[in-house]
Specification:
Elements (H helix, E strand, L loop, with lengths): L6 H17 L16 H21 L6 H7 L1 H16 L3
């Protein structure tokens, strides 16, 4: 039996884990790693972007199933995250 993971499944896994890692230093999670806590934001966002890219690949390859659409729905979360970070560290939008 061969276990096959296609792009849509990778996309969903990477998008969810990337969003969790990027948001984990903010409440309600508030998981910190000392002085290296702020590095989790760009690392998590990069993982999230890789997941979005895999979702787009799955969409353009026309993979079967609905998981590709669920992973593409997470794109507005990335936009909201960028707005949140720019407002938090920039002071104004």
């Amino acid at each position: 039996m061969r276990l096959e993971m296609n792009y849509s499944k990778y996309s969903l896994i990477l998008s969810i884990s990337g969003i969790f890692i990027a948001y984990m230093i903010f409440p309600p999670f508030n998981i910190t790693f000392g002085q290296w806590s702020m590095i989790a934001i760009p690392i998590g966002f990069a993982i999230y972007l890789i997941g979005v890219i895999f979702g787009m690949i799955a969409y353009f390859k026309k993979e079967k199933g609905l998981i590709k659409y669920v992973s593409l729905i997470s794109i507005p979360l990335g936009v909201l995250f960028v707005v949140f970070i720019s407002h938090l560290f920039g002071g104004e939008i």
